[in-house]
Specification:
2 domains; six-stranded mixed sheet; about 300 residues; binds adenosine-5'-triphosphate; single chain; four-stranded antiparallel sheet; Alpha-Beta Plaits
């Protein structure tokens, strides 16, 4: 169990983590989402004592990281895949970590095997590709057989096989009762991997709940309408706009309608003798939910993002 209580970090006059209070439960994979600069890494760094909170606390089983006798046996973290000394071999790197935390050297070949790096155990970490470095970082996180795992973008740099492997690994670690907390910008992957989601923007909590709930929040607002190109869709779009709907035409035979319930769209189509092939609520996706949740919290936005928010 990982608990954040009013966790706050300020750099100069800027609050980068703002009064975060939440619990990351054992037995589940919890995804940590937020735009660039939202404060995810800073939050994780505070959990493992690499940054000092300005106020509030991060507790593992009720204890601050700094007070854990053998922290690696309680919390395993992958925060920076390139953190290993480049001149040390994978094996040396893990042995050094094991020694400094009272972990048996026998764990080293076990975790190397678990992450698929046995063949390159004698190679220097500095020669590793990003994907290999991520695997070594995951091996380090697993070394102490910890009950809490913190992983900052663990699939960054991994090929599709590697991404699938991480997903399977994290799900099985959670199934063993561990607390798994990971950040990623890959929405589709997060949707597949995480049981729960925590979303932050500009350091503040925007959502915290089961993945299906976060994805479903605000879903069903968009209605997809499909019909023959010259079957009256344009007239239906005008009629819907007069009702206050926002209407986009993503394809000549398609309308995307928001602001009017599906039933009303059907009634108006019927009244206007508009020929329809399809009328359905748009499927909820995490990407859409995320865009909606974070629309006011993006610090480094480009113009395209503004268009997306406006639904153009
Ligand atoms: N040591 C520091 N000194 C000053 N500002 C910092 C420091 N570390 C982080 N920040 C600032 O804190 C904010 C949050 O950064 P953080 O790396 O935690 O965000 P993030 O959500 O992990 O972003 P990304 O998705 O890009 O990795 C950023 O504006 C960053 O510039």
């Amino acid at each position: 169990m990982l608990t954040l209580r009013g966790l706050t970090k300020r750099y100069g006059g800027k609050t980068v983590v703002d009064d975060l209070t939440l619990e990351v439960a054992p037995g589940k994979v919890t995804g940590f989402l937020g735009p660039n600069g939202a404060g995810k890494s800073t939050t994780m760094r505070m959990v493992v004592g690499l940054d000092e909170p300005t106020s509030g606390a991060a507790l593992i089983r009720g204890t601050p990281y700094a007070e854990l006798a053998h922290p690696l046996r309680v919390v395993g973290a992958l925060l920076d895949a390139r953190a290993a000394h480049p001149r040390r071999t994978a094996q040396q790197h893990l042995l050094a970590m094991a020694r400094s935390n009272g972990i048996s050297a026998r764990r080293v070949p076990e975790v190397l095997d678990a992450v698929g790096l046995t063949q390159v155990a004698g190679k220097r970490a500095g020669s590793f590709s990003l994907g290999m470095a991520q695997r070594l970082g995951i091996a380090g996180a697993l070394l102490g057989d910890p009950e809490v795992l913190l992983l900052d973008e663990p699939v960054n740099g991994l090929d599709p096989d590697g991404v699938l492997w991480v997903r399977t690994l994290l799900r099985s670690l959670a199934a063993e009762g561990r607390t798994v907390f990971l950040s990623s910008h890959l929405m589709s992957e997060m949707e597949l991997t995480a049981d729960r989601l925590v979303v932050i923007g500009r350091g503040r909590l925007l959502a915290d709940g089961p993945t299906a709930e976060v994805v479903g929040a605000g879903a069903g607002r968009t209605v997809c309408v499909r019909g023959p190109q010259h079957g009256g869709l344009a007239a239906l779009a005008d009629r819907l706009r007069r009702e206050g709907a926002e209407v986009a035409r993503p394809a000549p035979d398609e309308l995307s309608v928001s602001g009017v319930p599906l039933e009303r769209v059907g009634d108006l189509a019927h009244e206007g003798h508009v020929h329809l092939y399809e009328l359905r609520a748009a499927e909820a996706s995490l990407e859409e939910a995320y865009m909606r949740l974070t629309s006011q919290s993006v610090e480094y936005a480009q113009e395209g993002r503004t268009d997306l928010e406006a639904g153009v």
